Amino acid sequence: MSTRQLESTQEQPLLDFPLSRRGDVLPEECAWLREKAPVAKVRTLTGDTAWLVSSYALARQVLEDDRFSLKDTANAGVPRQYALTIPPEVVNNMGNINSAGLRNAVMKALNPRQKGLQDQLRATAGELIDALVAEGGPVDLRAGFADPFSAALHCQVLGVPFDDWRRLMAGLDVAFMTAREPFADSALNWYKDVGYFAQQLAAQRDRPVEERTGLLGTFAGLKEADPESAHLTDEMFATVAVSLFGAGAVSTSAFLVLAVLALLQRPELIGYLRAHPERMPKAVDELLRWNLSVGDGLPRIALADIQLGDVLVREGELVLVLLEGANFDPEAFERPEVLDLERESPNAHLAFGGGRHFCPASALGRTHAQIALGVLVERLPSLRLAVPAENLVWRTGFIKRLPERLPVAW
């Protein structure tokens, strides 16, 4: 719905959601929604109604109030943003990790400062760039760099062979589809990967303790080391690994693709980062604020009647946090429409969510992006988009805004 159509329906418009799937242009509805209807009723992909929250302050309220539940979005009979194609045990991944007593092991695996991780990531990034240079441009930066680099990180963190990265990333194309109705093979796809990680767990157990690697290596010895873990099953361990790989790899790759695209559309910023590598951490935070990869909002179910701005949200209603509304809110950010790599802290964007479900891998995600972008601008200073931006093909029916390909030259 265009801004003009919005202005013609002043009585709480029923918008169709999600908004535009293009990830390099802020949807034109965002500013109108923040100003006129920061809690607006929308119709989701499934035909259900939901409340779309587009201001920064109200978005934070939703994310930080435990009465807005993520876990309950997987319940039967609740309104949905799209059909439930992700198994319920995956939706509440961190809740399951905490309840099973696995939090310490998971957080240790997600620590970007663990020995050798950053050096290995830099080496992998360099090898991927070597392969692109050898092939010669134009090349697809998503397939040739963003996807394998993101997979490499998560393969190392989990302790699975990087040689399997294509098979694992291909599964995400089905795992994170957004559909109007459930389809049977979405579950088959998830459980296929559970089987894969269960096999990798068994392989870790067959190794000497000193040769076990990653989170699965830790899981492999957990029952032996901790009698209180005896009730944990290999299926549970594998489901945790599937969840972490899926959510992590799809998020880091999508962010990296859109971050590079934002820089390619402003070539002077590539030169700035090459000249000022010390600014990379702050630049990554600004690119996170700017990023439009989350195309369907962050969902929560209200567990009580809760006042949200001028709207009383009723128990059982669906609330969607519009990140591109919150992260471009002029009440929270000075000149939010400018991609400002010199923006100073605090850059309190909501790219990693908030409250109980703040992304546990936020530090790892930042490190991943800093290394990737640092290697790219250093090795390929003349990197450019090889096709007009309007010719990029944006994926539909997917949890992320994502171009199918990102052709580049240098």
UniProtKB/TrEMBL annotation:
Q: Which PROSITE patterns match?
A: CYTOCHROME_P450
Please state the span of the N-terminal signal peptide per the UniProt entry. none
Keyword field contains Heme? yes
Q: Which InterPro entries match?
A: Cyt_P450, Cyt_P450_B, Cyt_P450_CS, Cyt_P450_sf
Entry's Pfam families? p450 (PF00067)
Residue stretches in coiled coil: none
**Domain of life from the UniProt record:** Bacteria
**Transmembrane region positions?**
236-264
What family does this chain come from, according to its entry?
Belongs to the cytochrome P450 family.
Indicate what this protein is called per its UniProt record: Cytochrome P450
